[in-house]
Amino acid sequence: MFIEIVTLLFLIGSVVAQDCPHRTTERVPTEITVGPMVECSETKIVVDGVSIGGASHGCPSVIVVVPAHLKPRHEPGCMTQTVPAGFVDITKIFYECKYSYLLFFKLSSECVLIDRVTAGRLTSYAAVPCAPIATNELGTID
After folding, report:
1. Which residues pair with 86 in a beta bridge?
2. Among 6, 17, 40, 67, which is most exposed with the fewest C-beta within 10 angstroms?
3. What is the pLDDT of residue 103?
4. The pLDDT value given to residue 115
5. What's the Cα-to-Cα distance from 55 to each of 40, 46, 47, 99, 109, rounded to whole Å?
6. DSSP element (H, E) containing 11
7. At residue 3, does pLDDT exceed 50?
8. CB 80 within 8 A of CB 127
9. The pLDDT value given to residue 12
10. Which residue ranges make up each domain of the chain?
11. Complete DSSP assignment for 97-124
12. 21 in helix, strand or coil?
C-alpha cells in the first residue's frame, strides 16, 4: 500500500511538472535613449574685445523612452507560468532649437518639445501558479 501511494504521488508530481512551463517574470528597468544632439547657439558679438552672447548648448533631437515592464524567464522548479498582464507604450519625444531674435541677431535659444508619439507597444507579463491536476476523493486523477 505504501509503495502504491508513493508511486501515485510521484506520477502526480511528474505530470504536474510536465504541464507546468516553470516560467516566472523578470523586471526590465526603464530605458531612456537620447538621440543625436543638435547644437543650439547664440550670436556672438565682440565689442572692443568684450564678447557678448555666443553661448551654446546641446538639444537632443529625439529621446526614446521604454518604460519598466516584466518579461518571461525560465526558472526550473518555480511552478508558475506567465500570462500577458498589459501593455507599455514606447514613446518618442522630439525636440528642436527655438531662437529669440532682435532684428537678425540671435539673442538666445532654448530646447523645445515639438512632438510626442507612441512608437510601439511591449507586452508586460505576470507569473501565475500552474493549474493543479484535478483529483477525486480517493486522490486519483479524474
Report:
1. 124
2. 6
3. 81
4. 95
5. 8, 13, 16, 12, 9
6. helix 2-19
7. no
8. yes
9. 41
10. 2-129
11. EEEEEETTEEEEEEEEEEEEEEEEEEEE
12. coil
